[in-house]
Amino acid sequence: MNRLEVVAVTHRGLVREHNEDTVAVTGFLSTAREGEPTRFPVATARPVTCVVADGLGGHAEGQRASRVTASVIADAGPGLHDDDAVVRVVEAAHAAVEAEASWCSRWSGMATTVVLLTVAGTQATCANVGDSRCYLYRDGVLVQLSLDDSPLPVGATPPVGRTTVVTRTVGGYTGAAPARPHIHRTTVEAGDRFLLCSDGLTDLVPADLIEDRLKTEPDGVEAVRALLRAALDAGGDDNVSMLLVTIPERVA
Fold first, then answer.
1. Taking the domains of the chain in order of start, what are their residue ranges?
2. pTM for this structure?
3. 2-246: what CATH class?
4. DSSP E strand boundaries for the chain
């Protein structure tokens, strides 16, 4: 049985007119422009998949691309038992975005980044395309599991460094093959916290501050609220979306 708690939030930020992010978990797919963190207790024998998709700002229909991608992956979530299944669902999302774009010439090139986490028994699988991230917080230490498809600006060093260039996306490649996702597998332990987020958080909030907030806020809703506030206090110049997945007990 997979027992976990998920806290979700998506926020337009303080500058952008539209929210082009989409978050998905179990039967929930975000639609709000901004909102308070929402808690989802989950208990199921099937794999649980969580998704954050960040539609490319300034591109045609970024919100549409993120929503299509999150919907395709969330619908397939219970069947994501292995790496091959993860690759297939990302390819399916790419095809769905390309098909959607074909309906209107103004939508050509629409694209999104995506990060997903699937928890199945004692195993967790993280996959990403683009610069949306997945972190694991365990025993007081924050580790990035995802791999950014985004070069850092000259002189910048990880984990903080802003860039508007994303080298791989879902969609946006009219007629080209989809990008293969980066995949990372890890064993789940009691007390683990996985944070999935768009770059609206990580461009403004350094990893050490994220780690500190997860350390000082044991309640998931309060931790997500504190991280959102940190991003907004730092300028909030992009959409901000997060899913905090907490393993309260060992799954079997």
1. 2-246
2. 0.92
3. alpha beta
4. 2-11, 21-25, 28-29, 38-44, 48-55, 111-120, 123-129, 133-138, 141-144, 170-171, 182-187, 193-197, 240-246
